[in-house]
């Protein structure tokens, strides 16, 4: 087995073990932080797409639909308003 020159007996020092545990803990916490409850952006994107596509009668739009989340619902409402507005502007441009 290959031992380091600093530790000829192949045993990890207390410092090395603590550092390894710290790194592992940091990685686990970083992964756990990826799932945030703030779903405003997701809701906004879904609302915008649904409002735009429905107004222009482009196609049915599949959405996440997590309306139990307050941030998703708020984002969806804002996005739908903006999507419908953009579609109406697009519609008026095509009539000119």
Helical amount = 55-70%
Helix/strand-derived category reads: mainly alpha
Query: How many helices in DSSP terms?
Result: 3
Terminal-residue CA separation: 79 Å
Q: What is the β-strand count?
A: 0
SSE ordering: HHH
Q: What proportion of the residues form beta strands (DSSP E)?
A: under 5%
Mean pLDDT level: 81
> Which quaternary structure do these chains form?
single chain
Using the alpha-carbon principal axes, give the shape. Answer: rod-shaped
Q: Biggest sheet, open or closed, and with what strands and sense?
A: none
Q: Spans of 5+ residues with little confidence (pLDDT < 50)?
A: none
Rg on CA atoms, Å: 26 Å
Summary?
The protein is mainly α.
Please render the helix and strand layout as text.
Layout: H1 14-32, H2 40-55, H3 70-95
Helix pairs in contact: 2-3
Task: List descriptors.
96 residues; mainly alpha; 3 helices; 64% helix
């Amino acid at each position: 087995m290959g031992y380091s020159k600093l530790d000829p007996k192949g045993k990890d020092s207390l410092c090395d073990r603590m550092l390894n545990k710290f790194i592992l803990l940091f990685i686990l916490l970083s992964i756990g932080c990826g799932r945030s409850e703030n779903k405003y952006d997701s809701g906004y994107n879904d609302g915008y797409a649904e409002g735009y596509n429905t107004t222009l009668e482009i196609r049915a739009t599949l959405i996440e639909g997590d309306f139990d989340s307050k941030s998703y619902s708020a984002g969806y409402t804002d996005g739908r308003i903006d999507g419908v507005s953009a579609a109406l502007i697009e519609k008026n441009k095509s009539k000119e």
